[in-house]
Amino acid sequence: MKDLMIVLLTIVTFQMIAQDINGDWNGKLSYQGTELRLVLHITGQNGKYQSTMDSPDQGASGIEIENTTFENGKLKIAASLLQMEYTAELDEKGATLQGTFIQQGVSIPLIMTKEEGEQNVLPPPEGEANNIVLGDWNGVLNISGTKLRLVFHIIDSFGILKSTMDSPDQNANGILMDKTTFENGKLRIVANTLNAEYTAELNDGSDTLNGIFEQNGRSWDLDMTREKVEMETVVRPQEPKDFPYYQEEVKFKNPKGGHRLAGTLTMPNDGNFEKVVILISGSGPQDRNEEILNHKPFLVLSDHFTRQGIAILRYDDRGIAASEGVFAEATSKDFADDAAAAVAYLKSRKDMEGKAIGLAGHSEGGMIASMVASENTAVEFIVLLAGPGIDLKELLLLQQERTGEAEGIPVSTRKTMTKIAREMFEYIEANINLDKDQLNSGLAQLLGNLYEKLSDDGKQVIGNKDDFINQQTRMATTDWYLYLIRFSPDRFLSKVKCPVLAVNGELDLQVTSKENLEGIRKSLKRAKNKNVTIHEFPSLNHLFQKTKTGAPSEYETLEETFNKEAMDYVSNWILALEI
Fold first, then answer.
1. In what order do the strands lie in the sheet with 60-65?
2. What are the chain's domains?
3. Which helix (H) or strand (E) holds 62?
4. Number of neighbouring beta carbons within 10 Å of residue 402
5. What pTM, to 2 d.p., does this model score?
6. CA of 215: how far to CAs of 195, 234, 422, 463, 481, in Å?
7. Pair 317, 335: CB distance under 8 Å
8. Which residues contact 508 (CB under 8 A, 6 or more apart)?
9. What integer pLDDT is reported at residue 535 of this predicted model?
10. Long-range pairs of 433-437 with CB within 8 A, sequence gap ≥ 24
11. How would you list the strands of the sheet with 208-215, edge to edge?
12. Using CA atoms, how far apart are residues 352 and 345, in angstroms rounded to an integer?
């Protein structure tokens, strides 16, 4: 539930077998009399590889490659942006790759070597109008004081402009843009999934874009240059500077997914503790620190708990940082399997014998904690940090309305978006048996009808009809989203028998406090759970920071990472448990 103004898309990494393919590989594509140099940069360790590609003659560098595998001497890379795949075999000397480059149905032989090649990016050829906008463009989006770097990577793919976007401060890279055009000195980039669009004019010197970034009916000035933007490193005062306790890097396997998760286990140095807590992050791709907008809530939380005598295990989401697996294909149920694997791992350790294992989940992580605890007797207590307590479709509608109001989105726009979202949810709920193609077709028809009924002002806010429909249907038919909006927390909370602490901030606009805490209370009453503590903290937001409005745009601007009073309350509750 931590989605901000820029919707986070997932970053996928893949498990590989460790072999020596690292390095820079150079080759030339020959197609219809044209030669294009390509450079592959491959790095990896512990059986996991990643790569980027340069096309110097097209002025493109650092193109994200989503899938890089190297097994039994065979390399395979794939990039959806380019609709491209390269498969090749490495020779016995480990110096030459011989294979086939496939793009948009065209197959071209391609040999690549590790010999020194001409890797410097050349200026685009003269006489081709689109070439002057190719390359990397960098800028900073200022959203009510929150600064987010954006980077567009624009390439020419057989005469068609394509681009990806990075949002470095949200740990999101290689987001595929749906449409990229450059005509008469004007650039237009459309991202249906983000409901966003960037339009800009290229200045005469071809080194600056002056434009506007629009998303969800709001707009911001955004100028971009070819120079990389470095943000000042922010050191939050609550981040630990020393670690007077034992730390261990750990890995454990989820047998259901077949992947390993990586994390950090912290324990008091003297080994004197009675309880160990597994931290479960909220929605979106999160590392073990749950890092967001220069804050590291789980690092601060784990440090506080460990100093108080509570052991902590925090881990990277599947497919993120050092964890294996594929994040993009997972639902909340899959993430619950990951958390259950963490419980099993702790149970397998001799130094955890006799220790009480608990779960503490933030936002969607609270939802996951209740899922695991309802089925797993090894979980002896749970802490819900801004966890959902009402049906998720109602939560999302509340979230959209409350955050929109706090961020200054006009009432008419909010009403329009709420009506559209509600009708989409009702359609999805009523057609649970449709396959994805049928659901996509039905939603497209519904959204088209809703669009036609909008006022002219409403259409202006929503934007292009086709872009709007594509954006909504693409989001609504992902496995994660379908699972989420059909989710009822009561299904699991009403079966939780272990002690429960549910806390929230009064000014949480993403998982609203009163509605969700009351929902949790009712469900645990149905479970006949006698050990329940529910508490609302005044003036705290969704990240448990002291705030004035609760608006997501305030998160980065606040110095506090996690309110100490809230941390004390939670740690005292855990320590006082008699289990």
1. 60-65, 48-55, 34-45, 23-31, 106-113, 96-103, 84-90, 74-79, 67-71
2. 23-113 (2.40.128.120), 129-225 (2.40.128.120), 246-391+488-576 (3.40.50.1820), 393-485 (no CATH)
3. strand 60-65
4. 18
5. 0.71
6. 6, 27, 20, 10, 20
7. yes
8. 386, 540, 541, 542, 550
9. 98
10. 436/477
11. 172-176, 160-167, 146-157, 135-143, 218-225, 208-215, 196-202, 186-191, 179-183
12. 10
Q: Which helix (H) or strand (E) holds 156?
A: strand 146-157
What angle (nearest 5°) sits at the alpha carbon of residue 136, between those of residues 101 and 190? 85
Q: What is the pLDDT of residue 144?
A: 66
DSSP 8-state symbol, 129: G
Give the per-residue pLDDT at 339: 98
How far is the first Cα of the chain from the last one, in angstroms, to the nearest whole number? 31
Three-state DSSP class for 570? helix
Cβ–Cβ < 8 Å for 220, 210: no
pLDDT beyond 50 at 14: no
Query: Is residue 555 scored above 70 in pLDDT?
Result: yes
The enclosing H or E element of 262 equals strand 259-267
Does residue 121 have a pLDDT over 50?
A: no
490 vs 459: CA distance, rounded Å: 38
- Does residue 231 contact residue 420 with C-beta atoms inside 8 Å? no
Q: How far is CA 511 from CA 131, 371, 386, 429, 499, in A?
A: 46, 18, 6, 21, 22
DSSP state letters, 302-363? HHHHHHTT-EEEEEPPTTSTT--S-STT--HHHHHHHHHHHHHHHHH-GGGTTPEEEEEEET
Give the chain's count of helices (H) and strands (E). Answer: 12, 26
Q: Which residues contact 452 (CB under 8 A, 6 or more apart)?
A: none
pLDDT of residue 92: 67
- Please list the residues that pair with 31 across neighbouring strands: 34
Top pLDDT among 420 and 84 is at 420
Q: What is the helix (H) or strand (E) element at residue 106, kind and residue range?
A: strand 106-113
Is residue 503 over pLDDT 50? yes
pLDDT of residue 385: 98
What's the confidence (pLDDT) of residue 93?
67
CB atoms within 10 A of CB 328: 15
When pLDDT is averaged across residues 232-257 and rounded to a whole number, the result is 92
Residues 6+ apart with CB under 8 A from 175: 9, 164, 165, 166, 167, 191, 193, 194
**Average of pLDDT values for 232-243?**
87
The lowest-confidence range among 137-151, 268-282, 515-529 is: 137-151
Average pLDDT, the chain: 87
Q: Which residue has the higher pLDDT, 372 or 109?
A: 372
For residue 346, the one-letter residue type is L
Looking from the CA of 535 toward its CB, the CA atoms found within 13 Å total: 16
Q: Coil, strand or helix: which one is 13?
A: coil
* pLDDT tops 50 at residue 337: yes
